[in-house]
Amino acid sequence: MLETKDLTIRFGGHVAVNSVSCRFEPGTLTAIVGPNGAGKTTYFNLISGQLKANAGEVLLGGESLTGLSSSARTRAGLGRAFQLTNLFPHLSVLENVRLAVQSAQAGPHLRGFNMWSIWSDHAPLTRRAMQILDSVSMRDKQSLPVASLPHGDQRKLEVALLMALDPAVFMFDEPTAGMSADEAPVILNLIRALKQDKTKTILLVEHKMDVVRELADRIIVLHNGMLVADGDPAEVIASPIVQEAYLGVAPQTEVTASEFSTNAESKAAQ
Known about the structure:
By secondary structure, the protein is α/β, with parallel strands linked by helices. The chain has helices spanning 40-48, 70-76, 93-106, 123-135, 151-165, 184-195, 209-215, 233-238, 240-247, 257-269; strands spanning 2-11, 14-24, 29-33, 55-60, 63-64, 78-81, 169-173, 201-205, 218-223, 226-231.
């Protein structure tokens, strides 16, 4: 179980995330939504350790991660994919995944471990890397340098790296950002497959509300850095406070789920 307690960060006089307390259970995909500037990615950065909180805690399995670096949180079980790909561009596709597998198997003993040792010494690591490439349909691109891949394939590879790390928590920050209509379903299918493992917790920041409605078991809504709604997707979308905070719709005005999706995507993209 992942949990944040009163998580807060300020930038000068602006409170970007304001005392957010939330629990995320295994076997659940939670979508984090809200208008542009609501604090969604900042909240993600606080959880994964890219930003240091001014107050509050992050816990995983009851153990505090609050004082740990982002890399230490990864080793503890947080796997994070970014809006922009985070890969080794000059290494091959297979080398990227093999290094992630090797890192995961090194575990807490990573310090002093030779990440660049000879491939032939690690045939089991290579076999595992190939299995992961099969799962993301990239075996035929194993020898290509990552820098030569189109954007969609780089996003697929980043998911492959997360799978190689085998984290307890998968965190996806707008995983289909910048992808074409033909490319996006591949990433979404990978996330659907990850959902089948009920030991994993999945967090998803996404402004495409049709994706949220299809994938999410639960939605939480941030607005001005505060948690303003949490619950079943249909109920959250229908709640007056969410429609007012997210869309600027008057509380007495009824908005259908389809209208909410269309208007929310437009506002989130602004």
